[in-house]
Amino acid sequence: MSNMVVQVREENIIDNDIIVFKELAIADLKFLIWNKKKKMLDIDDPDIMKLWKININEKEEYKLGYLKEDNIKQMFNGEFLKSHRTLESYFPTDQGLVAKNIHIIIIDVSFVAAGKRISTFCL
């Protein structure tokens, strides 16, 4: 399991366009993640990433090692992040986030395809 930080700003450059935070779609977030971490993720297409919203304390990160894609909802009240929705629809700016919590995980699709235990990356 790996942790990473990807900066999401008030204005983000996606494919030479400026996208403001309120309009930033999950698909755009995938691009920002992929653009910064493509070597680490070892994928060619950001659209294949599966992002989930969770909210657990970083001290409980070990629990992510027991994840399977079908139990994210039960274990962490997880919500699959749909590419067409905005990031703000999942994380409203008027509701603060706990800085020491993990809020988004990326499911390693190569592990899922091979039927192996899920590898996760935390944002």
Helix-strand pattern: EEEHEHEHEHE
What class, by secondary structure content? alpha+beta
Q: Count up the domains.
A: 1
Q: Which residue ranges are poorly predicted, with pLDDT under 50 across at least 5 consecutive positions?
A: none
Mean pLDDT: 82
Give the oligomeric state: single chain
- Which strand-content bin applies to the residues? 15-25%
Number of helices: 4
Q: State the end-to-end CA separation.
A: 11 Å
Shape type: globular
Residues in helices, as a percent range: 10-25%
Number of strands: 7
Strand order of the largest sheet: 1-7-6-4-5
Q: Rg to the nearest angstrom?
A: 14 Å
Which sheet architecture does the biggest sheet show?
Answer: 5 strands, mixed
Quick summary of this structure?
One of its GO terms (molecular function) is hydrolase activity. With 123 residues, this protein is of the alpha+beta class.
3D structure, described in words:
The chain has 123 residues and is α+β, with helices and mostly antiparallel strands. The protein has one domain. It has four helices and seven strands. The chain has helices at 26-41, 72-76, 87-90, 109-113; strands at 2-3, 11-14, 17-20, 50-57, 79-80, 101-107, 120-122. The protein has a five-stranded mixed beta sheet with strand order 1-7-6-4-5. The longest helix has 16 residues, at 26-41. The mean pLDDT is 82. Keywords: Hydrolase, Secreted. Its main location: host cell. Residues 25-106 form the Crinkler effector protein N-terminal domain.
Provide keyphrases for this structure.
5-stranded mixed sheet, 123 residues, secreted, Crinkler_N, P-loop containing nucleoside triphosphate hydrolase protein
